[in-house]
Amino acid sequence: MSDDSLWTIFINATLVNNFVLAYFLGICPFLGVSSKMSTATRMGAAVTFVMLVASLSAYGINALLEWLGAPYLRLISYIVVIASAVQFVEMFVKKMSPTLFRALGIFLPLITTNCAILGLALFQTNRGYNLLQCLVFAAGAGAGFTLALVLMAGIREKLALAQLSDIVQGTAISLMVAGILSLAFMGFAGLGAA
Amino acid sequence: MAAEPRDITGADDLVRGLWRENPVFVQVLGMCPVLAVTNSAVNGLTMGLATLFVLVLSNTLVSLLRDYIPRQVRIATFILIIATFVTVVDYLIQAFSLELHRSLGAFISLIVVNCLILSRAEAFASRHGPLRSIMDGLGMGLGFTLALLCMGAVREILGNGSLFGVAVLPSAFQPWIVMVLPGGGFFTLGAWLLLINFRKQQRAKTLAVPVEQP
Fold first, then answer.
1. What is the DSSP letter of B125?
2. Best mutation site among B31, B82, B91 for testing chain A: the one with the most A CBs within 10 Å?
3. Are B59 and B120 in contact (CB under 8 A)?
4. For chain A, what is the domain count?
C-alpha cells in the first residue's frame, strides 16, 4: 500500500516523472500527431479520458484477480479490458456527442495500442494505489501527456518554417527536440518529493 | 542460430528484417522500449531477446492459426496470443534473474503493446506459412535486438565509461551523465537516425539511381 498524498501523486505523474519525457510511454502518438497544435490538444484530451476509464477498470479487475488468486492473468485481462473500454467510450461518445466524435476521429481506436494506457494500469498496480489515488494518478498522467504533446506541437509548428538540411528532417530532428524537452523537465526533479 | 538457409526465401526473410527493413532504424516502430530500457547494454540485450522470443512464437502461432481466425476479430486474437507469450517471458526473466527483472520493471509487460509485434502478425504471419513466418520473426527480432544493443552500448560507454559492466574508457574520462538519463535516449536515437540518413544520402549520390524499393 502506498501512502503518498494525492497532491504528490499528481505532481509526480504530471511533471517529475512525465509519462512521455521520463518514462517514454506513448512515444508513437507523441511523434505521430504532434505536428499540429489543434490535433495535439484533442489527442491529449482523448488520452486523458481513456486513462481515467482504464484506471478505474484496471482497479476493479485487479481486485477481482486478487480475490480469485490468479495474478498471472493480469496482463491478459488488462489488455482485453482496455481494448473493450476504448470501444465502449467510442460508442458512447458517438451516441452522445457526434461533434466530439468527429473531432477525435481516428485517435480513439488508436489509443488501444498506446503503451501509456497499459503502463498506467501496470504502474498503479505495482505501487498499490487505492481507488482515489488511482484516479488522481490517471488525471496527472493524462495532464502530463497533454502538456508534453502540446509543447512539442508548438515547437514543431515553428520548426516547419525553419530551414533545415535534408538529412535532419523528419524523425531525427523531432527526437533531438524531445531530448531537449526531456532535459528541461528534469528541472522539476524533487518537486513532488514531499 | 536455428536458421538453415536451405530455403532461399526463408533466408531472404531473415536478412530483410535484420538490415534493409530494420524495425527501429528504418521503420521506426516500437520506440518505447528502444528509448526506455537502453541505458545499459545488458538491459538493451535482454529486452531485445525477450522481444525476439515473443515475436517468433507469436508469428508461429498466428501463422498456424491463420485459417481459423475470423477476420473481424483477428486483431483482438493477435493481442491475446501476444499477451500470453509476454506473460511467459515475464515469468521466465523473473525466474532467471530477479535483478534484471527489477531494472526492466513494467517494460517487459509493455512488450504487449509494442507495435512491431502486432504489425508483423498482421502484415506477415497472417498471410504466410509457418516456416517463412518464423524466419520473418527471427529476422525482425534480431534486427530489433541489434538496434537496442547499438543504443545501449553507446549510452553505456558515454554515460558510464563501461560496456556490459566492464570499464572500457580510461578513468580520466568524465562520464556524460546525461546519456543514461531519459534525455540521452532521445539524443542517441536521433544521432543514429542522422547517421543512417547521411549514409543513405551518400549512397544515393554515388549510385546516381536511388536505392530500389522492395
1. I
2. B31
3. yes
4. 1
| Cell numbers standing for residue A42 | 484533442
Closest Cα in chain B to A25: B32
Neighbouring CB atoms inside 10 A of A184's CB total: 12
**Could you tell me the CA-to-CA distances from B25 to A187, B142, B143, B144 in Å, in that order?**
30, 13, 9, 9
The answer to whether B18 touches B139, Cβ cutoff 8 Å, is yes
Expressed as residue numbers, the domain containing A88 is: 6-188
pTM for the complete prediction?
Answer: 0.80
Q: Is A61 among the domain residues? A: yes
- Within an 8 Å CB–CB cutoff, is residue A77 touching chain B? no
> What span, in angstroms and rounded, lies between the C-alpha atoms of B175 and B166?
14
Q: Is A59 helix (H, G, I), strand (E, B) or coil?
A: helix
pLDDT in tens, chain B (214 residues): 344 444 556 677 777 777 777 777 777 777 777 888 888 888 888 888 999 999 999 999 999 988 888 887 787 888 889 989 999 998 898 888 888 888 887 788 888 878 788 888 888 888 888 888 898 889 889 988 988 888 888 888 888 777 777 777 777 777 787 787 888 888 888 888 888 888 888 887 777 555 555 4
Q: What element of type H or E holds B164? A: none
Task: Answer for the pair A16, A191: CB distance below 8 angstroms, yes or no.
Answer: yes
